[in-house]
Amino acid sequence: MSSAAEREAVAEQRTAPVVVTEAAPRGTPGVPVRPGAPTPLGARFRAGPDGVPGTNFALWAGGAEAVELCLFDEGGRETRAPLTELTHEIWHGFVPGVLPGQRYGYRVHGRWDPWTGGRWNPAKLLLDPYARAVDGDFALPPEVYGHVRDWPQQHVADTVRDERDSAPFVPKGVVVHDDDDWADDHRPKTPWADSVIYELHVKGFTRAHPGVPEELRGTYAGLAHPAAVEHLTRLGVTAVELLPVHQFAHEDHLLRRGLRNYWGYNSVGYFAPHAGYAASGTAGQQVGEFKRMVRALHAAGIEVILDVVYNHTAEAGELGPTLSLKGIDNRGYYRLQSDARRYTDYTGCGNTLHVVRPHVLRLITDSLRYWVTEMGVDGFRFDLAAALARSMHDVDMLSPFLAVIAQDPVLRRVKLIAEPWDVGSGGYQVGAFPPLWTEWNDRYRGAVRDFWRGALPDVRDLGYRLSGSSDLYAWGGRRPYASVNFVTAHDGLTLRDLVTYERKHNEANGEGNRDGSDDNRSWNCGTEGESDDGRVRALRRRQLRNLLTTLLLSTGVPMLVAGDELGRTQGGNNNAYCQDNETSWVDWGLLDDPGWQALFDLTSRLIALRHRHPVLRRRAFFSGRAHSADGLRDLAWFTARGAEMTERDWYAPAATLGMYLSGRDIPGRDERGAPIVDDSFLAVLHAGDAPAAFVLPGPPWARRYEVVVDTSREEQAAAPGVTYRAGASITVPARAVLLLRVG
Questions:
Q1: d(CA 123, CA 135)
Q2: Over 70: is that where the pLDDT of 17 sits?
């Protein structure tokens, strides 16, 4: 306890109903429950032993004393049936006549004793963790809390059990018919090195799209619509990374301010596609709609990667609602402190799933396999993955979670992306995840932002980031594509806002502008916010071209954020997690502006260039050594004088860097076993605010150079065809990237 006063208050509350043992429940006459099977977990429709169709229900609830299955008809009337069979801590039963579309939940009985972590409360209807569809919205009235939320002494409120029924106020699971074998689906199976990832929000991408029918906007069906898919194929991306689509709930503090959780990092159902994104219905139809979306994207050659949140749930801490796991077996699912009333929080969201426990690990891996085998997805980006890699306390790269993934015959074959940090001690783990994993490389983000705003003291860090971050990933057989390179993500400023604002502007979030990071590493080009000054606007667009060009020429896997290629703005809001409105939705009207259309065209052209040239998407790290008698190396760095960089040059302040990529020395062979040979390129990055002279390296590096990209130009069509002789001194425009093909 935190103080003598609290201990005294708690002692007083022990006279209230704080420790309760439930009597066994009694079922409703006429509901036949046969023994059924303990596997698979969840609600699975099938034929019974006598051929009569029905549903098998199975729930892990290790410390529970009794479990009631609750069935709901169309009018919301509840019928309860005890599950009396218990096998290896799994309560199970088969109910004949329960068909797909049936809405259900559980009431779990046990000891109410928050001091030891026991928070069983059968007054609260609980969502099946394995529910494959969810019908209804999560509101958060007092009835959905296991404790008396408005207890006068708030510091002990979580110890007083609330006896009110939550069933009218919570959504229900839905029985779904599994009848899809994916025989007509063809996964793109894009190699990591060839991948270009596009992070998008299912709702926000199409909510304002004029080419998508109104009734489909903001839905899985909307993302599958030809108008949405056509933008992705024109852009040239190979994968979409969807912000969370697991069923999620809105936080109470947002609902009280009239806001909603837009991003979805508040999961409560790990098998159910979020019902709010379904156009076809929420009584199981959302499952089929999601599958059709995946098929449409696969048919266009686009993989589907899910951003998944297995580190915490929407039930928060001891003062949070009781929606599912907390009421099934609180101490079995969550990490608790030595004071078991409190939750260990490595996530900043109130709780942390106890992934070391076998049944929790099973929940996560069962969910992952389900989304691959039955929903067709191609990979996952793990939110706060370091929290999943913790053993008992510390982050452990030999943890049960990582070990299980590495040996799983399904999961080890899909794309695995770690957000390699959490908020706990020792949680920053960039570069530490084992082979099979790629990582969001925030050191890439920081170095590129700092270079283009003139804040890098030298170019050492930039050199590593441009060439695949070998300092982070060249170990254990990892490859350059272990680095997912990004300049922006959903969390933070958009690309346009990165060159428009130096301060966050999150007032609309209702938190006094205290939320969101203060470390934006942005530059507003001299004016805070939007400007009518033509010079400022032109400079900002040039900076956008510089950032996108740098990203798409770097070794590693580039990740774009939906709308950055169009100049999307959030008005400086760098934490728009609760802005389910035009602030966050993609503004497709931007394409009517020739300037933003030109930015899209450049982005598409750069992606196409990357796809054509294997030297830009290497599968092995550069050696930096000469592979032939002429002394030509696979990677070389040049100063503005046209001389190769020395050790002293790497430590000297510099605004200009030349990077030579040899297409003659690419490791590996193509599918036919032939050597891979490509053009060679020289990229010149100049972040200075005035033009600079640059001497083009002479033989053996090149005889001549042809300009392929010049970011000083609004329109790129005029740039190709300009040639220079080797050894010539050229003028690099202020704040620009030149990409030159070697001849």
A1: 20
A2: no
